Amino acid sequence: MTAPETDIETETETAGTDTEALRKRALTSLTTARDRTTLLTTCVGEPDLTAQHSPLMSPLVWDLAHIGNQEELWLLRAVGGRDAMRPEIDGLYDAFEHPRAERPKLPLLPPEEARRYAAEVRGRALDLLETADFRGTRLTEAGFAFGMIAQHEQQHDETMLITHQLRKGPRALTAPDPEPAPPFTGPAEVLVPGGPFTMGTSVEPWALDNERPAHPRDVAPFWIDTTPVTNAAYQAFIDDGGYDGERWWSPEGWAHIRRHGITAPLFWRRDGGQWLRRRFGLTEPVPPDEPVVHVCWYEADAYARWAGRRLPTETEWEKAARFDPATGRSMRYPWGDADPAPEHANLGQRHLGPAPAGSYPAGASPLGVRQLIGDVWEWTASDFLPYPGFRAFPYKEYSEVFFGSDHKVLRGGSFAVDPVACRGTFRNWDYPVRRQIFSGFRTARSEAC
């Protein structure tokens, strides 16, 4: 670990020892998550809550009770030492025991009962928080268990928002559009210097196991797109026969799109000479200046090949997002160490889509790369693998069981991600065929190319 990285992580650790500040942060994070859960589960009626809108997703009512069950397991039982409230439902809401496609057949709690259960758990958890001692065990240190549960709920809120996007029928959610932005006229790409940097973290208090530990990486110089790839750029790929030419696709990607008849991003359709998209029940023209979203890894990889470029590795992405060449240290976020604010990034479901490419100049990295946090999850070239020295905590099913070549890493978060579950070290992963997620990408090239 470099000395500058030690300095910032010492500051974070010191802040984490302020018990009352941690208590306030935990309360705010839990409350923000529950407010969002309530919105997502009260804006539609009971039939929509209990229906399975896609075999890829759970019924919304499963997510609701699962959120409460995980909170009970980790806060009330593991931290508080309380007896199980409803041990008979643990198996129903074990994500590893029942695949999503099977969950509608389970004897799930009906919506009102699920709400009462989640609310009762939350009331007891907040009582526990009032007297919690954030010392003693790794689970309680710096309020980690409370932060883990807030992140877990926000991750399921994003999952439920995906379900809302897949749901047929009239629009149930509304939010203001992002502020219009002038056309971006900056450089198309930025050179990231080669050399070492510190990847991951060892002391960010609420970082999850796959983000740990901090470790040195050495990266060759490379160029990376200043902004994510836009709809207009992706349409050029389509118009040039991108989905018709096998030459741009990996063998697995070509077989996948041919087998499923994929010819455009998910939710797009052509109407005469115009591309339309469906977004949360609303059909509208595809905006050319927004980052493309709902593309799978194979599509991102094919576009990059067509453009004469490639997807960045996960290491390259993190260096572009965290490295400050003036100090040589790795920051928490592209803009610095401060928590995200509205001027930095499009996060937290403030909007129901990405902002125009080039937005949020205050959130740019020191090298000038924009929108690395928020707007769209960005596919990288990398498989989801553990860092050197990785230790599963607090359970191996969070990360360890997913390591390997089956999953590709996504970075940066999306408009659907809450700041508590998004930082420069945060890692997401999914199968390369997934398109229902809020995924986009940017491209890179080696310096010599």
Automatic annotation (TrEMBL):
Give the domain of life.
Answer: Bacteria
What metabolic or biological pathway is this protein involved in?
A: Amino-acid biosynthesis; ergothioneine biosynthesis
Record domain Sulfatase-modifying factor enzyme-like: where: 186-445
UniProt keywords, alphabetically: Iron, Metal-binding, Monooxygenase, Oxidoreductase
Q: What is its EC number?
A: 1.14.99.50
Q: Where does gamma-L-glutamyl-L-cysteine bind?
A: R100, A101, E102, R103, D430, R434
**Protein residues bound to Fe cation:** H66, H152, H156
Give the SUPFAM superfamilies listed for this entry: C-type lectin-like, DinB/YfiT-like putative metalloenzymes
Q: Where is the DinB-like domain?
A: 30-160
UniProt enzyme class: oxidoreductase
Reactions listed under catalytic activity: gamma-L-glutamyl-L-cysteine + hercynine + O2 = gamma-L-glutamyl-hercynylcysteine S-oxide + H2O
Gene3D superfamilies from the xrefs? dinb family like domain, paralog of FGE (formylglycine-generating enzyme)
Q: Which cofactor does it need?
A: Fe(2+)
Alphabetically, the GO molecular function entries are: gamma-glutamyl hercynylcysteine sulfoxide synthase activity; iron ion binding
UniProt function note: Catalyzes the oxidative sulfurization of hercynine (N-alpha,N-alpha,N-alpha-trimethyl-L-histidine) into hercynyl-gamma-L-glutamyl-L-cysteine sulfoxide, a step in the biosynthesis pathway of ergothioneine.
Of which family is this protein a member?
Belongs to the EgtB family.
What protein name applies here? Hercynine oxygenase
